[in-house]
Amino acid sequence: MVNRRSVMGLSAGAAILGAGAVSRGWGESTGNQSQNGFRWLSDFATRGKGASDDTGTFQRAIDYVRNIALRTRDTSCLPALLIPAGRYVLTETIDTAPWIKLCSVGGVLLDFSLLPVGWNGLTCRNETTLPATELRFPGDRSPFLDGTGGTISILGPGKAQSEGWGIVMGNRQAGFSGAVRDAGGRNVVVTGWRGALRIDPVNTYLTAWFSSRFEQNREDGIYVAPGVGRSVNSGERMTFFDCTFAGSARAIDINSDSMDFVFDACSFDFNGDVVYFGRQARFGTVAFNHCHIEGIDGLLVNGTAAGKNLRTVFRDSIVLPRRWKRKDLDNAPRQLVAGTAKFSASGVEWRFESPQQGALTALIGDEVPVESVSAMSFQKVQALPWRGSVINADSLFTLDSPGTPVGSLTHWSMSSAASGRAAGEIVAMDMATGNGATTRSRQALRLASPDQDNAPFSVTTRTPFPVNAGETVLAACAATSAGTTGRTAFAFQFYAAGGVPLSVSESQSTANELPSAQAAVPAGAVQAVLKTTFIGWTGKLEINELAVWRSS
């Protein structure tokens, strides 16, 4: 919605420039217009009426500074607006510009709780005909919302009902000389809106936000709206330092192209998706450095609706994907990255608290173009980062057709300590889709216990897989049984060149845990085979996955 006062102010400024006249803005004195470099907000209050609505006071103060800039055609020497500590009731949208500085002196609450639910709180646009001047937008290079003297809190009409954004940045048309650049905020809290920060991608770039919180907003912490066809001169170096994004369906929702975001030392607490790319997102990179990410109901990266020329980069960060609202679900390894956006991660610590149930699921989807995954670490529970790093053939038992007997498998062999051999075959597994229907989504190796003595039986990779000396290899088995659940033993047999046997590394799982093992590859080894032995299992055993991968 366009606030009528903003339109009137711009029209008046344009008229002043066109006529070359000298005129005073609202509340402007005839003396030194900078007033020692600042003006108090209270200077613009309505006198003697005891008004409880502070909207007019804010807009008069902002338009006072705006008119100085329009008249002098310069933003380099404008006074800052100082806001004394207190609560200010605002019932209409406040329109400002990146070169108008709203600075707190003590804690400031901008209370928009009585605002119509469809309106935005504060808009920062630069829809003027001001030239760049030789100093190149001199008034922009500092926060337009500066809570250094005390936090500036922006409270909306309510998380459940609001349809507006707490802060909107960016122009609506490309024809203006002004740009929303070098603009942002410091020590700002935005709560109780549909979304905290909306970016309109028209001449909007070089944004920087410091030590701010975007929390308890219904849909988005940051929302980049679709451009008209595409973004215009927008998206360069959108940076956030020491900020928190919490309690929204999506922490970052990008629905425009050419958006490059950097998050440094930020926290993402209790969101649905952390990064979501919409259909209009086609180019851009979102990078996380030294961040903490906790409480995810959805995905860490959701690129399922987006194009292929997008990237997410995670470095030296912590991911604790405990569920936000679904507290009945364990914090177990599950898919956290999906879609066609490129993904890379280095030095990421994954904190899982429960063993995985059922099939072994990679954290990164098969369809994701992985640029690099390195230096991964895990607390308590190991996980498979990416299936692209699986190094044994047919880990999912999908390369042989259903009905293939266990003795004829292409990539697996079987043996038993008992005199009789266990029977088994590849079977198709039907999985529920969640809407009552079923779909064939995977296969499994179904085995029967070889005899009544519960003799151990083993499944071994028929073809050796490549290894590198000094690295760590891991194995995990996802299996279910219609009878008794037993233990699982793993043995890595390493070979030197020419098939010369080297050492064997053995480990054994405890009962009722997802079986897994790891081993260090010895010097000289170039190949290995994995032998997995099932001990004490009775009835029918279904092996859903038996995978080996390199530790990243």
- The CATH class of the domain at 406-550, by name, is Mainly Beta
CATH architecture designation of the domain at 406-550: Sandwich
Helical residue percent band = under 10%
Give the overall pLDDT as a whole number: 86
Note the total helix count. 2
| Biggest sheet layout | 21 strands, parallel
Mind telling me the C-alpha Rg?
31 Å
In terms of per-residue confidence, which ranges show pLDDT below 50 for 5 or more consecutive residues? 1-32, 432-440
Count the E strands.
43
Question: Could you describe the 3D structure shown?
Answer:
It is built from two helices and 43 strands. Among the domains are: 249-389; 406-550, Jelly Rolls. The two termini are 50 Å apart. Helix 1 packs parallel to helix 2. Strand 1 (38-40), helix 2 (55-72) and strand 2 form a beta-alpha-beta unit. With 552 residues, the protein is mainly beta. The strands form five sheets. The chain has a 21-stranded parallel sheet that branches. Strands 3-5-8-12-16-19-22-25-28 form a nine-stranded parallel sheet. InterPro entries: Pectin_lyas_fold, Pectin_lyase_fold/virulence. It comes from Paraburkholderia sediminicola. This is Pectate lyase-like protein.
Summarize this structure briefly.
This protein is mostly beta strands and 552 residues long.
Question: What topology emerges from the helices and strands here?
Answer:
Blueprint lengths: L3 H16 L18 E3 L14 H18 L7 E10 L4 E3 L5 E10 L10 E3 L20 E2 L5 E4 L9 E5 L10 E2 L2 E3 L1 E4 L3 E5 L4 E2 L2 E3 L2 E3 L4 E5 L13 E4 L2 E3 L3 E5 L4 E6 L2 E5 L1 E5 L5 E7 L2 E5 L4 E3 L5 E7 L2 E3 L16 E3 L2 E5 L2 E4 L17 E5 L2 E4 L31 E5 L7 E9 L5 E11 L8 E5 L3 E2 L5 E10 L5 E10 L3 E9 L7 E5 L6 E9 L4 E11 L2
Parallel strand pairs: 1-2, 2-4, 3-5, 4-6, 4-7, 5-8, 6-10, 7-11, 8-12, 9-13, 10-14, 11-15, 12-16, 14-17, 15-18, 16-19, 17-20, 18-21, 19-22, 20-23, 21-24, 22-25, 23-26, 24-27, 25-28, 26-29, 27-30, 29-31, 30-32
Antiparallel strand pairs: 33-36, 34-35, 35-43, 36-42, 37-42, 38-41, 38-43, 39-40, 39-42
Protein name: Pectate lyase-like protein
InterPro entries: Pectin_lyas_fold, Pectin_lyase_fold/virulence
